[in-house]
Design goal:
The chain has about 110 residues and is mainly alpha-helical. The chain has two helices and no strands.
């Protein structure tokens, strides 16, 4: 099915430029309607193209996303390890401080 300007116009507009109420369109109004009809056709073509692209993503994009996923996983793992290391170090320092305070309290 071909999208032509006349096939996209509303049913109230006939081939002679008259509307259903009997009014005649000016050339400018007709030109605006034709442009809108072309715009509708172009948007329909764009929509169809985007649907095709979305349904069948390219292997290059998928490979890039897999690589990005691997890098993101690595960064996340390193971040978790760093946070764990900091928490563990704070616990050790807290235990040493509480142990030193207990020793000083016993000596009094």
């Amino acid at each position: 099915m071909e999208n032509t300007p006349s096939s996209n116009l509303s049913s109230s507009h006939n081939q002679y430029g008259d509307t259903a109420s009997g009014e005649t369109l000016s050339p400018l109004e007709q030109e605006v309607l034709d442009e809108y009809a072309r715009l509708v056709g172009n948007l329909n073509n764009l929509s169809a193209s985007l649907s095709t692209i979305a349904a069948q993503p390219s292997s290059e994009i998928l490979d890039s996303l897999r690589g990005l996923e691997r890098k993101t996983s690595l960064v996340f793992t390193l971040l978790k390890a760093s946070v764990y290391s900091i928490v563990l170090q704070q616990q050790i320092e807290g235990e040493e401080d509480s142990g030193a305070q207990a020793s000083s309290d016993v000596g009094r």
